[in-house]
Structures are given as C-alpha cells and as structure tokens.
From TrEMBL:
Keyword Ribosomal protein attached: no
Protein name: RRM domain-containing protein
Lineage: Eukaryota, Viridiplantae, Streptophyta, Embryophyta, Tracheophyta
Pfam family, one: RRM_1
Molecular function in Gene Ontology: RNA binding
Record's keyword terms, sorted: RNA-binding
Organism of origin: Rhynchospora pubera
SUPFAM superfamilies linked to this entry: RNA-binding domain, RBD
SMART domains for the chain: RRM
Length: 98
C-alpha cells in the first residue's frame, strides 16, 4: 500500500486520486482521510494495489508529480500491528501481612 503523505490538495478526493493512479497500474482501493468533525480532507490518503510491483511502479513514476496543484509525496504505508491487550493485575491497597 502506498501513502500519499501530507500535502495533498484539499480538492483531491477518492475519484481524482483513483484517476491519477489507475492509469498506471491495477488499483484495488483508494481512500482520502477526512476529519471526523469538519468533514474536510486531512491532506493525505492511501492507495492499495493488487501487488507490490504495481505499487513500486506507481511510486517511481508519480512521486513528485503534481496533482491538482500540489506535488505528490509518496511513501510506502506501514501496516498497523495491533498488540495483545495489556493486563494489569489488581493491586490491593491493604498492607501486606508479615
């Protein structure tokens, strides 16, 4: 997955991002990140490709190219790793017995 780092034009939406990338390789998903309260773009998004070679090709070709007035700054997205929940045992406030 590729990440369009900060700096996307506020007018870029899923459709324009899909149009920019699908002309190069097989795109399976695009998503612009929006602020939950305002609904405004947060200035970055993600593009998912069918395989790593397609993602690399798109990055090589499009990194630095201008989309709707702003240069694309493309990097590989890091997958979130969810760890196991942290369990804290109950701690008694009573004094220890001797």
């Amino acid at each position: 997955m590729l990440c369009m780092r900060e700096g996307l034009s506020w007018s870029v939406d899923d459709r324009s991002l899909l149009d920019a990338f699908s002309s190069f390789r097989d795109v399976t998903e695009v998503s612009i990140m929006y602020d939950k309260n305002s609904g405004r773009s947060r200035g970055f998004g993600f593009v998912q490709f069918s395989n790593e070679d397609d993602a690399k090709y798109a990055k090589d070709v499009l990194d630095g190219k201008v989309l709707l007035g702003r240069p694309l700054r493309i990097s590989y997205a890091l997958e979130r790793v969810r760890g196991a929940p942290v369990v804290v045992p109950r701690i008694s406030s009573a004094e220890p017995k001797d």
